[in-house]
Every structure is written in C-alpha cells, then in structure tokens.
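Handout, section B. The chain below has 287 residues.
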Amino acid sequence: MKKLLILSGKGGTGKTTVAAAFIDFLSARAFADCDVDAPNLHIVAGLMSEPERKDYHGLQKAYIVSEKCFGCGLCADKCRFDAIQILDGKAEVDEYACEGCAVCSFVCPNDAVVMKDDVAGEQALFREGRVFSTAKLKMGRGNSGKLVTEVKNALFKASEADLVIIDGSPGIGCPVIASVTGVDLVLIVAEPSVSGIHDMERILKTAGILGVKTAVCVNKYDVCPESTEKIKGYCAENSILIVGKIPYDKQAPKAINAGHSLASVECPAGTELKAMLANVLELLEEC
C-alpha cells in the first residue's frame, strides 16, 4: 500500500483542491481527511452513504458533583487556567478552559471534583463503494495529533487499496507530524507569496527531519512569477523536485463552490493537475 500525503505550510494554498482532483482522476478507493480541526474534503468527495461514527475521547476534564460542593472556592483559587468559578455557592467548570490537570480534584476537601473522560471529537468512516476516513475535533480541544493517528489507522484497517491519498492539515504542528508519520511521499502545495514561501520552507524542513520523501507543486504560479522563481530556486538548492505548476484559473473556485473537483471540469488548472498526477505516481513507484 502506497501512502501519498498532501500538505501545505499554510492554509488556503489549494491543498484540498489538489487532493480532491487526484482522488477523482484515480477513482481512488481509499482516502482520508486529516485536517481534524477543519475537515472539508467531504464537501467535494461525493459521498452519499451514512458513515460509521464513534466518539473520540481526549484528555479528562473536571466535573463538579453538585451535592458534595459547598462552595469553599479552593478549587477556583488553585486553578491556574481560571477554568472554575463559584456561582450561587457552587463551583462551575468552564469546559473550554479546563486543561484536565486535576489540581482541583486533588485539593477539594469534600471529593466534589471528579475527572471524567471528555468527548473531544467524532470520527467518521465511510465504507460504501470506497473507504473515506475523517474526523472533527470539538472546539477548544487538544490532542489533534492523536486523533489524526486514529483517522489514519481506521483507513488502513478498513482498506487494502494499492494507493491511499491523505489530505493533511496546514502548518507544522502535531496534526501535521502525525500525518507525515509512515507515509511514502509528501506533496507540498506552495503558494507564490512571501508567507507561502516561508511556510513551504518550514514544512519541507519538518518533513526532512522526519525522513520522508518530498515534492513540491506551485499553485497559481502565474499570479506572482517572481515568487515562483524563488520557490524554484529554493527547491533546486535543496534537491527537491517540483512536479507541477498550476495556473490561476477562475473556473477552479466555481467548481469547488459547486461541490466538484477540478477533475470533473475542462479547464487549464485541471489539465495541469492531471499531468502533475502522472509525475507524482512515478515518484511513488520509486518509494
């Protein structure tokens, strides 16, 4: 099983657009959305079946046993995250501020604070016809890297496809590191802008530290040719292959807004994506 991960150093570069097009061009049987903070691959994936859903449990959080609490305020005084306040003579926990450190439970003189498993998100697995694994982390919850690992494991267990395509998350944090682990090739979608170049360099260095093979494509390369040349120069200096340059195409946002990938639209961007996919598949064969 070959594993292709599509990343970008920042949001809004067209990462999911590339992933969705590749999935449709290949009629991929297995794919995942590991951007668990803001998943959106399902919008253009054309999935009609109802998924298998299950709760994802992250860190424990504090809960107040109301009948035991007499409002002494010790838990609120010791909470360094200001997650507890005393209202009407009882302690109340702000679930979004609580970090699960359990200090409040330790200092409570009447065992009125208990630590409980917190439902931090939800996983979804589509199996009808093809396998799609995704998840959504609840607002204010952590452990996104752990949830990404769960999404990937669910995909690998449910499918025996020769190739899986994984849409990752922006940045270089925990969810990205969890996404990179165990894949064969990382395709980085770069944007020809100052921030785009900076963040491309960061994600390339991150992938390099993790020892994963990388390639780059430039999206909307013709918007700023000068920045595109800088990307080409950086990649040449660091022996990183550029597998494609996608032109700015007004039809692209129209197709995405209508819930379609660029594989279903006759347009310059779609044509380049198809040619770029051939280059990516060649690289995967070498992995």
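Note. The CA atoms of residues 21 and 263 lie 5 Å apart. Compare this with the example in section A.
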